[in-house]
Amino acid sequence: MVRSVAATADEHARRLPGDALIADAAGQLTHAVTIQRPRRAVWPWLVQMGAGSRAGWYSYDRLDNGNKPSARRIIPSLQHIAVGTLFPALPGRADGFTVLHIEDDAHLVLGWLAGDGTPITTWAFVLEDAGPSTTRLIVRSRASGKYPFFGLPKFLGMPLARAVHFVMQRRQLLGIAERVEHLDELLNQFVPAYDVIERHSIRVSATPAAAFDAALRVDMHESPLIRAIIRLRAMAMGDSQDDAARPRGLLAETTSMGWRVLAEIPGQEVVVGAAARPWLQNVTFRPIEPAQFAAFNEPGYVKIAWTLRVDSVWPDATVLSTETRAVATDEHARAKFGHYWRRVMPGVVAIRWILLRRVKRDAEAIRLESLSHGRSH
Fold it and tell me: What is the value of pTM for the model shown?
């Protein structure tokens, strides 16, 4: 599904923070996006914007950030701003957008100032609740009569400015939404930097609690295709280990193999990790204590951590996500793991795809059974 950045009729019409700074605007543009995270999770990405030494604009980096990729993490040193803070428009420039008004977790108003200190343009980023753990990010740009419109007459410059602004603004809003929704703060505590990352998600018509419970209990061995993929991997690696009897259920089985639960938010997320040398025959998973996981650097290993996470999608659905990160402890292990990963990645992706759809099936079946039981009474 393509995510929309179209503002509603009400969002176009009503006054927003910053409007009063340019009372008689020559032009106004409003766009918006819905983000499946609370306002407090969106806010840090806004306050660190800016080119050069800041986090970037999350738009077309080749055009507005000197081809330096915009940040994909929250940068603590950029989280403290005040009225008067400058967000450079381009790398190496001393001009840009100045913070004109700020209210934490609510709105950030930027402006491009004329020589007399009055704003030529304002750029307001407004955060509003759109449901439980859901935010509506509304962005409005207003231009005064001093706006140059690329040096063209207004009747030519206005359409061009609208077109350019839409292209850049759309990319920025989608970039912010993608970063906010994909950032996993719990996982970041253990693997903040990585050599490999895999993310997958699926929408489930069930409560977060039901989806999470189904994810923990899903049985990989119920799928003939997953069993075949696991056997093919074992044959390719010359794995001679016996298929030991293990408890059923994804979390129970993996922890019985040596994986360790590193952190969890009951009913919402669990992070599991281990160190391993997966390129060897008869791979074993070495459990690492949570407090030592991030700093573990014994040569010859790759640290792997993965998550199961549910997020409510207002009003009546859930997004179930899984993310896997791996980082090697030295260059030799990195080369070994890179070769191994290229061989097994298609099978890993297939297993994730199958498991998510089995969880969706199980969670929605329980919901339907519950609804049917309720109607029968």
Answer: 0.69
